[in-house]
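Hey, resending since the last one bounced:
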Amino acid sequence: MIVAVLGGSLMCFPALRDAAIRGMQRQVQLACGAQRRIGASGRDALVVMGANGTSIAARGWSWARSNRRAIGLSAVAVILPVVGAVLLSMTRPMAGFEDKAEVRDPVLAALLDGEHLVPPPALPPEVFVTAELQAERPEIASASRDWTLMDGEFRQRILVLFQQMSERGYELALLEGYRSPERQAQLAAMGPHVTRAGAFQSYHQFGLAADLAFFRGGKIVISERDPWAMEGYRLLGERAEALGLTWGGRWKLMDFGHVELRRAGVLGRK
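The structure tokens again:
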């Protein structure tokens, strides 16, 4: 409404319109004058700052030239310890700055330092043909338990796993390590309740998988109905994953005793 009233007044009263135009022109002139004065003052300030900066730089250079010996000795005193520390660190860690990550975790220490654990003694063949084990894993009697057929890195991780589980009161037994493609095909033919992986589709064929169980009282314990065994499987999965292994207990078709070391581009390769 205010805009409409002002617009109508300017249209109806020429004298008012002329006065408004003269007022606007006067404000524009004042603004331009102020801008010119500010610009002149800014240029003057920059000139003064430049002169002061040049004077300061000249005095600084003069001081540096007259004290160059002291400056040189100070620079050497600062640089020499740094150079010495760098050279020393190339041969051995500085005291107090060693890489503690390698010694905090004994598992990583065993793996990274190249410690080769020895496989446990082979269990007697008769422990793998008991009625209980045959009911759970009827094909296990003919499985390979030859540690030398397993991948070296994977074998060391499994042996560390054996060691850690023993410290927690669970002795492990190797049910199966390397598995030939022919045996894999035979197991696949028995149905998905045994395995869904055909030949060259399992890490067993590449020595990168193992099936484990517990050994208690001279017998293989594999039953998932045993609370003691299920607690052991939980610990087994926890420690296996901490070692970078894949645990079958997280699969849709759960295989609590299965662990594997996955590598890209392995499966499917003959």
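The chain is about 55% helix and 10% strand.

Sorry for the duplicate.
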